[in-house]
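So, can you check this record?

>
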Amino acid sequence: MFLRRPVMDIEGWSPDNPIKKESWRTVLTLAYQSLGVVYGDLSTSPLYVYRSTFAEDIQHSESNEEIYGVLSFVFWTLTLIPLLKYVFIVLRADDNGEGGTFALYSLLCRHARVSTLPNGQVADEDLYEYKRDGISSANQGLGLGLSLRSTLEKHRLLQKMLLALALIGTCMVIGDGVLTPAISVFSAVSGLELVLSKHHHQYIEVPVACIILFLFYLQHYGTHRIGFLFAPVVIAWLFCISAIGVYNIFHWNPHVYQALSPYYMYKFLKKTRRGGWMSLGGILLCITGSEAMFADLGHFSQMSIKIAFTCVVYPSLILAYMGQAAYLSKHHIIESGYHISFYESVPEKLRWPVLAIAILAAVVGSQAIITGTFSIIKQCSALGYFPRVRIIHTSSKICGQIYIPEINWILMLLCLAVTIGFRDTKHISNAIGLAVITVMLVTTCLMSLVIVLCWHRNIFLALCFILFFGSIEALYFSASLIKFLDGAWVPVALSFIFLVIMYIWHYGTLRKYEFDVQNKVPINWLLSLGPNLGIVRVRGIGLIHTELVSGIPSIFSHFLTNLPAFHQVLVFLCVKYVPVPHVRPEERFLVGRIGPKDYRVYRCIARYGYRDIQMDDVMFENDLVCSIAEFIRSEGTECDDGLVDLDNDERMTVIGTASTYSNGKRMCEDNDDLFEEATSTTKLTEISSPEVTRKRVRFLIPESPQINSNARIELQELMEAREAGMTFILGHCYVKAKMGSNLIKRIVINTCYDFLRRNSRGPAHALCFVRASTLEVGMVYHV
């Protein structure tokens, strides 16, 4: 057994861990970093909001009713959606620090049994994450709230609709990750129109934007490095636009603050009518990037994101928009011949420096939603709704900071395609507007359910929430949807593609699991083989991977007919994700026995949250063997604590990782001369060697009178088997549609799902084992 020092304290997480209690210094540091990651996109919105709003639907007139009305809409939209809805309400609905559309869905799955995960267990509801939320059948609320929960749990169609809603929001976030960098960079580069001739500008703008978009490459450096690198740029940009805004207010129109009154919104719509309604698609862009506050929550903390927005971003944006409106209220004819532009309101002597800062800020803005996209895809992949991808953890301290290479490069290519294809901000702004408002509508719908089912508030409060914010967002949604043919079709097309991928992967995974369940081997078949299972039992531990949480997988019988010998200790290993962000180390494993004791056949279920990091091969093997040893010891002392009844023929015991229990075995290094006998109160510890030194470990059996002789013999055999070696046996399944299936099913299973399976990564726990100790056995599944 070899030990190496882990890069991250993976198993050290705990809700009660004092490390999680952030100091003000940590909060302010995260707030500083969030400016460079979360708010880059939102901060650059002044570059294109007025330009998009006055593109064609309305005209800037001498009466200033249009510009005042737009300013009023921008002010109240920024106040009601990002500030009131997200900062004060939605951020409170974090799933233990994790945000995003799928985190809301996961939160709902814990409070109502609406999850479509196939291998869920009643024992999962005993996890700490369920109990800390106060989830029990007795406190699920009364009256209409209880009726709503019961209705969702009874009707499978409603559960599928809820999942579809969450997936649509998730896919729109991915589409937003494609469109946001394009419009941010394109709008910044558009400032070249004021310093170049129109003939040269049209040939330079697109190539420069594409070159800047290649900075997707910076994502692999990690959120914390990008945050420290980009935060000064965003701070400089916010200071710049707020200072220019203050200058324009006092220099051109000190009374522009009067336009903040909602009365100007009424006058605007009364005068412009249909044109004003259609222009709402441009006004909507002032909140582009607001969803990143929630999606990127796992990278930072709730308090840090709130402080950065309320104290820095929000006042800077309001001053910037007021300054632009003040300038435009005195300039009704744009001399340059171009449409209304942010750079028109910038003093001429400052245009070059502001252009440089704007381009840098746009680069930062292009990274904001990408980090949120990484988090959401990781959640979907962990819960079986997206093909497995390579996930790189870029921080040794904050496990939510990740990088996904495949997704990063796909987003970059799609972003370049959008930029080259449209070549202007008009069509891109129409596209991004629909994507943004769709995500917000989905968040509003899910949030209303969270208020009732998770927070146990009155259902009328949830109705007020969805009616108030839903009506505002529905108004913007209608204005964006009417421009479907003018670019708004792009996020719909992108979302449809990703939604099809998610559905095919989820459908194929469910059918594969159903095949395993329907073809389980009965326990009587195992008992009929006898203790030797009808074959030669050799020294060592055999780990058979299975998705089943109960019963014997059919692939095991396939193993026995193809292998002349098998290991003396056999473990059916199931590694599954549950709809919680974290599973505490002391609740990591469920361990049980299959058949009589002399068969030496065990079942071990390793449970992870969708935000957990799976351990490396050494740590995982150590904890796995120790959990089985602890199970044997607990049986030997007749301890019933932590027993869970899962089936009539199995009883599972909740066992923690090696560092979470004190009674048990001790692991020592082979070159250590201190092979002392451990007492029953000796704490089980793992001795880590330096990175350059690799040592074998062995177990010492405690000389405790509480452990009977049979348990001691079983522990001795487990120790000998571990020292002989461990083999990971993986069933390589080929999923095919069964005979008689219709054409659509054959295409989905035989072509699409097979393509995704071949091009996705294997299970993370399979990849961590040394290839030399991994045995793959092929089998065809007809589903």
